[in-house]
Amino acid sequence: MPNTSRVTRRLGLKTAVAAAVAGPLSSTALSAAPASAATGRTDRRLDVMSFNLRYASATEPNSWARRRPVVRELLRRERPQVIGTQEGLYQQVRDIEADLGARYDWIGTGRAGGSRDEFMAVFYDTRRVEPVSYEHYWLSDTPDVIGSNTWGGGSIRMVTWVRFRDLRDAGREFYFLDTHLDNASQHARARAASLIAERIAGLDRSLPLVVTGDFNVPAHGNPVYDTMLGAGLADTWDTAAERSALYATFHGYRPLVPDGERIDWILATPGVTVHRASINAFSSGGQFPSDHLPVQASLTL
To answer: CB within 8 A of 259, min separation 6: which ones?
Structure first.
């Protein structure tokens, strides 16, 4: 069942680890935003991003210390209202929270529970959306068991989804789902996609759904993609009225590959209007923010 309970704002590490047994980490309480949050702008477009952060490490030349200022600049320039991230470690997620500023919060938990391992953290602009409920599940035969991994994947894999209320669109609600499929096993990826499709079918289908993730397979080139589209989703890159230049979304800190494979996707239910889809090739002083390029979409739900 989705979690609708109140959680402590900006949990300290010690408290967070203790709370992990009972529930996921979050930096926010599921409380109503002030009515004034919806005033000031009438633009109903929602800007979303999928961003594999590349986990923080001290390994040069692409250490987190070098990359963090570039990530900060990227996010402050773009200001997406909802961001589905992958691979962030706990302190890295907290760094991004600090760099985005007070108007942003996040929901997430480590793949191994609490602050352990990588996060599928969902960041959001509290002036635009507020969380109504959320849930985490693991991509395994026992999806409600924290840290479970039963399909031979190279790593624990999971989903974070949030039901949001759009403060700028008369309180319209929508789902936002973020995931990261396995890099080592096609079997694990295929099973994961099937489980996600099954869980999507159990959501309120009258509400729009946006899916972000690193799927570790190319769009249009793998059964995983077919399964996700078969779940009633459309690829925003294909349905967008306007697109940026196309690059392979994984570059590994090597030269960018024009017209390369998109393994990071933003999917949405067909009723969502996609104004623009883009792959963000931002770098600063020769430093990329990650070994993946962020993927973005401007939507009307």
So the answer is: 246, 247
Decide which of 44 and 214 is more confident.
214
pLDDT greater than 70 at residue 40: no
Report the sign of the C-alpha dihedral through residues 201, 207, 213, 218, in that order: positive
* Domains detected in the chain: 46-292 (3.60.10.10)
Residue 43: predicted pLDDT:
80
Whole-model pTM over 0.85: yes
CB of 131 closer than 8 Å to CB of 107: yes
End-to-end CA gap in the chain? 25
Are 132 and 30 in contact by the 8 Å Cβ rule? The answer is yes
Mean pLDDT of 61-77: 98
Nearest to 301 by CA among 275, 263, 265: 275
Cα 268 from Cα 236, distance rounded (Å): 7
Report residue 231 CA to chain centroid gap.
18
DSSP string, 122-180: EEEETTTEEEEEEEEEESSSSTTSTT---S--SS--EEEEEEEEETTTTT-EEEEEEEE
- As a whole number of angstroms, the distance between CA 181 and CA 106 comes to 21
Q: Where residue 25 falls among pLDDT bands split at 50, 70, 90? A: low
> Mean pLDDT over all residues of the chain?
89
Pairwise CA distance, residues 53 & 293, whole Å: 9
Quickly count: other Cβ atoms within 10 Å of residue 273's Cβ: 16
d(CA 167, CA 164): 9
pLDDT, tens digit, 9 for 90 and up, residues 221-257: 999 999 999 999 999 999 999 999 999 999 999 999 9
Residue 47: pLDDT band with limits 50, 70, 90: very high
